[in-house]
Write a structure and sequence with these properties.
The protein is α+β, with helices and mostly antiparallel strands and 156 residues long. Strands 2-1-5-3-4 form a 5-stranded mixed β-sheet, sandwiched between helices. Helix 3 packs across helix 6 and helix 4 packs parallel to helix 6. It is globular. The mean pLDDT is 93.
Length: 156
């Protein structure tokens, strides 16, 4: 048994230590925010926060996650009280098919945690390894900039 802290709750997980975190999140904990995309850590659809840093859960074995704080999309906010990043993506309608959204939102959350005032260039650099084929890039950039502004307003 392995203990994982996911979204502020401790879970006892019965899985091999080399099991990818994504499999445990989706199959054992029924958290479907992180998606299976490439399985190689390349596309970003499986992104979660581990100790506040964006991480590709499809290539991280659970043994490397014990004693660390894991946050999934479900842990950011709720339908009634979304995180400012989630709210910004909703307001800007920054999705088409939505498959990349988990990675975009989680990467944005990590970016704004370490850099609350990013430039548009810094946003594009942070998101460049999150693949999106729909063409919602303009709306996604606007959503990130809106979330950065909301974060600034909340602190003032």
């Amino acid at each position: 048994m392995m203990r994982l802290n996911v979204n502020g709750r401790i879970h006892q997980v019965s899985a091999s230590p080399d099991t990818p975190l994504l499999y445990v999140l989706r199959n054992d904990l029924a958290l479907n925010g992180p998606k299976y995309g490439c399985g190689l850590g390349e596309c970003g659809t499986c992104t979660v926060l581990i100790d506040g840093v964006a991480a590709r859960s499809c290539v991280i074995p659970i043994e490397g996650c014990t004693g660390r704080e894991i946050v999934t999309l479900e842990g950011l906010g709720s339908r009634d009280a979304p995180d400012p990043v989630q709210e910004a993506f909703i307001t800007e309608q920054a999705a088409q098919c939505g498959y990349c959204l988990n990675g975009m939102i989680m990467t944005t959350k990590a970016l704004l945690t370490r850099n609350p005032h990013p430039t548009e260039r810094e946003v594009m650099e942070a998101l460049r390894y999150n693949l999106c084929r729909c063409g919602a890039h303009i709306e996604i950039i606007r959503a990130v900039m809106r979330a950065a502004g909301a974060a600034v307003e909340a602190r003032d």
